[in-house]
User: Fold these one by one.
Assistant:
Number 1:
Amino acid sequence: MAVHIPLDKVAGRDALAALARAGGITIGAVNANVFQDDDYMLGSVCNPDQKVRKKALSHLLEFVDIMDATGSRDLKPRFVDGTSYIVGGGSRNELLCQLSVDDCGLPVVAGPAEATALGNVLVQARALGAAPGTLDGMRALLRTCLGLRRYAPSDSTRRWEEAASRLG
């Protein structure tokens, strides 16, 4: 089982390891979510503010300690330091996607609209031997089947200026 820190964070590393052992669960990967803190709005390890970069590094080292305590061998850091991803129903809304890009100044990849359902089907197909057995293989299969749309920041700030003028 993979844990998502800080989402699955408990009182301490030893408590997490004990909880897993009590449930007969082996921790596979520690997914380090280095994007949920408000300080990471402009990125984590690539943030322009040195204090924020140090904070992100400290978090990543904490995740390594969690790996040691739980016996996990895999660390999967999750960053949002370059591209935003919009999945679910919102990915169908071109205006939402473009405004997100223009507001954040980061490229957006939109889709799939039914990400959760597709993930479920893919895991079941893998269990039956009908889909690739690796994560990279499953991602490659999805890329061949899905129409992901990419959005880039526009040069125009007209929409934002119009909105700001309406607010006074």
Number 2:
Amino acid sequence: MRRRPVAGVTALSLFLALAAAPLMAQESRQHLVYWAGTPQAVEVYKIFGREPGPTVMIMGGIQGDEPGGFLCADLYTGVSLKRGNLIVLPRANFKSIAQFNRGTEGDMNRKFQGDLGRDDPYRDIVALIKSLMAESDLFLNLHDGSGYYRPTYESDLANPNRYGQSIIADADSYTHGPTGRVIPLASYAEEVIARVNREIAEPLQHFHFFNTRTGAADSPYKEQRQSASYYALTQLGIPAYGVEASKQLPNLELKVYHHNLAVTAFLDLFGVEMDRPSLNLPSPRLGYVVITAGDHPPVVALDGQTLMVAPGETVTVVEVAANYDRGLSAAVEGLGGWNDLGRPFTLERSASITVRKDQTVIGRVRLELLPEAGPPRLSSPVAWRSVRSGEPAVLASATPEPPPARPAAAGEEAASVSGSLAAPGRVTGFLVDVDGRTMEVAPGGTLVVPVGAIVTMVDFTMEGGGPPPGPGVVMNLRGFVPKEKMTANDGEDRGFPADTARDMMPSFSQGGRGRDYAINIERGKTVLASATLSIIKPRLESVTIEVDGKTLILSLGSRTILPEGTAFTVTEIKLAEDLTLSRPVFTLGGLPLAPELPLNLSVPSYAANLAVFNGETLAGKVTLAPR
């Protein structure tokens, strides 16, 4: 990262160096906390690419009531870079953020012109921001603004006096006097806007370039001369922009997403290349192996377990779940080839399944023959050891049987065992809350929910209403780790809501496709019962409306022309695969509507999309246009 000498900043270098407490310093990144241990603590992240390139500074939260900006900046604190560098200041004004106030001590974004007095509460943080901008080649200041900026008047929400959905610069082009550098601000912004708008379906939400002409004598935005972006442009000679997501977007997730589109487009344009995926390379670890035998239900086997199968059964390794979703193979030693995943074979003698990630063995499951025909079960007629851990394998029956009863002592009546000492019974059901409704799924069954549903593991039921099968039993939604357990996950997910649009890890889904996730009842390494949570992206098929006594069925992507102001009622939303919306969100022309049917609406004065979401996940849209 480069550093420019800046008046009023160089003298503060020693002070800022002493104020910053480095929490983490590696070759690829630094995490700095300025004024640590005080309410004014400010966190800065510096990420260095493996190849040299420009430095982009991303700042959010300079105004505290604009969460889309600072939450988007958060997304870039943990990235790794192939080329170029990032400076990320997610929360420039944390006090105002905590109080959801534009500026508890005034507007910090009007403090960058001239020297601030010693008593100004923003003096030190503004000096820090200036010093960070001096290391940068591009400055992005992320905001949430009102309405939808348009160069000409379209409506009360979309006009030149609004700020939302805009890329703001202080000029079309600027020549920096000290260096003579010509900065084509409008050209850069229009390229970014073209890229971003290709990803936004709703026309009202498209971005536009907003030139405030800040330095012009007749500019109506002269107050912007005190802003951070104007300082970066005129004093440091670097391109600087305000990125504004609309406060009228239907939800916070969409604001963050639109910010992300713009920031990523700027990074691509300026040659800062992020790694996709991250360079975090954990040691490969086997989760489980799913095996079928004949027509019996699938069995979930862990590393080191033994599966007993009737002689002559057709056995198939259906799936390998690990912390990677590529490079996995399963070889049936002595019976198959180098990768028998998905290939049926007939078991006539003992064998073992060796699971590899690329060339590394990550686990084995032994196959043994039952003495007679019957369903497969997990047990161990011969003791053997897990290849991964070197410890004796944990073995269990697929349908646990109670241990033999202890003979009663003399004079002692036989008594039923209860509580934690009870013999384990059979799990008969999984109780899962889906957006406030409790659903029950049987072992081996599948619960289908749309992407965006909030699911919470509630509990499981036992045969005859019996007690749980001993201590240490957890209900584990594979691929989900509660935020509260990120540093110490015990596998117990009961009571923790999982957002199916954001919280699931596809590498732990079946086949790595990000759709089917196991719900396991586990005791240690033993899976006592399993069901499947199937998360399907909702896809709109049609919208049914009633207008002037007629029923119209509007198919996905269709355009319907009706007289402006015509009243109509949305009576039905139909999704593919018989899905239902668990968290319905409806918008018309980007404006949120009531979340339940029927919807009584009228045709607007402009072509508008009637969009259907499950949470923040778009299912589809139809267009209504005035005649």
Number 3:
Amino acid sequence: MKRLTFILSFVLLIGSALAAEPASVDSVSAFGKYPLTICPVCGETDVSSTHTKVYDGREVVFCGDDCISQFEKNLAESMMSLNMHIAEAQRPTYAMTSCIVCGDGMDPKAEAIESVYLNQYVKFCCRECLASFNKNPETYTGNLTAAMNASAGEKKE
């Protein structure tokens, strides 16, 4: 059920990525920076900034041109797979203990609604909060940035 919820929430965010023309890496926001250390196609750890593409504000780094071609053959499926990798990597260190939208605490016994905004894993307490987030994500990303900065500060001490 958790995987289905994640997939459904991602489908809401993917629509514009399919028609997007690759953009400049300079135009990518902090949330769009590539967070993984592996190629999203083959899993190779030798990724290079010379093999970087931007899809709808999301930076993706590959190990080579062949993987770029493979990724773009079915962009929707590739982006969904990328989101799964991002969620797996970021879930254990997710900085917020409350819903990014309403601020309610997350019930550890209840299944959270998971999504990926640009290249950042995000959790919600309910579908209504996910819908609110999808209408205007920039309204809520400051909450996550603040939590991430606080978490990074605690780790330094």
Number 4:
Amino acid sequence: MNHAGARVIVFDITMDDSSKVALNDSLLRQTLQKYNNVVIATTVGYTQTNKFAEVQATEPTYDNKFYNVDKNIGVTNIIKDRDDVCRSYLPLLDIKGWGTPTLAFAALNRYFKLKNGTLVDFSNEKYFMLKDRIIPRNGSTLC
């Protein structure tokens, strides 16, 4: 994909922990070390939610075995309303005190060549800012 000109490559897959895939894990690790435009998805367990979806993780690696390669990671947790419907998106999750971008925003960080873990600016109630881009908040209009 890099040879074809991809600016960002996102993997949102479930990794099997069995020893059968050790060679594949090694190849993926080598690829992640070679290219810095790859983002890996992770899902973390959580105990409670609030406006910014406070989440509890067991360790700062987000239990992702590829986190220590280059830390291009995005969280895929979906926060649903009480009626089990997802009506909004979040730009980040608070994982035990670490602001962590959601997968789409981690991909934007790579696209804009921002540092790993760069978070959106929340200073406006109608939109988020990332680099020089305005991203509308849920339920708001920019007009």
